[in-house]
Design goal:
Belongs to the carbohydrate kinase PfkB family. Keywords: Kinase, Transferase. This is Sugar kinase. The chain is α/β, with parallel strands linked by helices. The chain is 40% helix and 24% strand. It has one domain (3-295): Ribokinase (UDP-N-acetylmuramoyl-L-alanine:D-glutamate ligase, 3-Layer(aba) Sandwich), CATH 3.40.1190. The longest helix is centred in the middle third of the chain and has 16 residues, at 136-151. The radius of gyration is 18 Å and the shape is globular.
């Protein structure tokens, strides 16, 4: 299976003193997918960077992680976005962004032809943040392209990851409704979904099922995840973590753990267990991307 993840990756500043790293929700998921799947299931990142040395370094790092980069555009004169993350004593984080003039934002606004971008892929993964980075007319074109991709046999995987700084609740509600109608798998952070739609648990799942999504995973932090598929609803408990260092990429890594397990033939319930395991490892380390050795069981 060839998997494409579309979104924006940025330079990350974090720690005391500040250290330079990189991250971004769909990129984090791409890294953790690539580490679990290896060469058997190529992972492609679909985005844009500049033609500067920082962008060169990002591409080199991502290639070293096993991510295919040939679908990443290089825009002359542009730069990657930047964010600074602050983490409190409980591992909860606060983000500050400098991304409005990034290469990816310009690329998303350029009237993309999605057909060649998706060509040859078996699945496309995107998030609510991905959708928010497109202006309304371009977002509509993206959703139409995803619907066409699915009609042609492709799979669409959607994570609702919501950032209120990027767009309005009304915009998110409309876009999410369209995605739930075409997604094969929906990975839903409950708190984010409540902010957008106001419902929880059973009502949330019923709404997304009614839209047409056949496989739904509701992420609820330390509470059990809810997995709805094939007419069944099961709750999968998290694995206790004694010391949480940084919750950054917890949801992104859960998504990667879940999807990787499903690709490799696991049941939805076992896939959720794998998602919990990986997220539990990730939150014990600083930053979005933990050392590869930390993922060894």
């Amino acid at each position: 299976m060839r998997i494409g993840l579309i979104g924006e990756a940025m330079i990350e500043l974090a720690g005391t003193p500040l250290e330079r790293r990189w991250g971004g929700d769909t990129l984090n998921t791409a890294v953790y997918l690539a580490r679990q799947l290896g060469d058997a299931h190529p992972v492609h990142y679909l985005s844009a960077l500049g033609d500067d040395s920082l962008s060169d370094g990002l591409l080199a790092d991502w290639q070293a992680e096993g991510i295919a980069i040939e679908r990443i555009a290089r825009l002359p004169g542009r730069l990657p976005g930047l964010y600074l993350v602050e983490t409190d004593d409980a591992g909860e984080r606060r983000f500050h962004y400098w991304r409005s003039d990034s290469a990816a934002r310009h690329w998303f606004a350029s009237g993309l032809d999605f057909a060649p971008l998706f060509d040859g892929l078996d699945a496309v993964y995107l998030s609510g943040i991905t959708l928010a980075l497109f202006a309304a007319p371009e977002r509509k074109r993206l959703i139409e392209a995803l619907a066409a991709f699915r009609q042609q046999g492709g799979r669409v995987w959607f994570d609702n990851n919501y950032r209120p700084q990027l767009w309005s609740v009304a915009e998110a509600r409309d876009a999410y409704a369209h995605l739930y109608a075409i997604a094969d798998i929906a990975l839903i952070t409950e708190d984010d979904e409540v902010r957008v739609f106001g419902d929880e648990d059973g009502a949330l799942i019923a709404r997304v099922q009614a839209a047409g999504c056949p496989e739904i995973v509701v992420k609820r932090g330390a509470m059990p995840a809810l997995v709805a598929s094939d007419g069944q609803l099961v709750a999968i408990a998290t694995q206790p973590v004694e010391h949480v260092v940084d919750t950054c990429a917890a949801g992104d890594s859960f998504a990667a753990g879940y999807l990787a397990a499903r690709i490799l033939g696991a049941t939805p319930a076992d896939a959720a267990r794998n998602g919990h395991w990986l997220a539990g490892r990730v939150i014990q380390y600083p930053g979005a991307i933990i050392p590869a050795g930390a993922m060894l069981r």
